[in-house]
Amino acid sequence: MHAGLFFMLNGCSSIGRAAVSKTAGWEFESLHPCKEFFAMRIIRYLKDAYEELVHKVSWPTWGDLQSSAILVMVASVIIALIILAMDASFRNLMEFIYSMFY
Fold this sequence. Notes:
- 65% of the residues lie in helices and 4% in strands.
- It is mainly alpha-helical.
- It folds into two domains: 1-59, no CATH class; 60-102.
């Protein structure tokens, strides 16, 4: 793999930071934000996501889920009926207007 592509995938930088007066004489400090490989970061991300889903997310109870699903279905039917009524009204209005000219 090309070295530039490797650094782009890993988010690493080949640029270092210049020494300030307090650190003069010490070793050169690199600005590599990542020391681990791309695959290791993916594994760490998946582990963190799993831990958050298991320990931090508050999942609804089965009863809450059922009542929410029923509410969504009822609201969907009501909205569909309203749109049906509006469509039928508009169709009748347009048929009336067209019948006046033809």
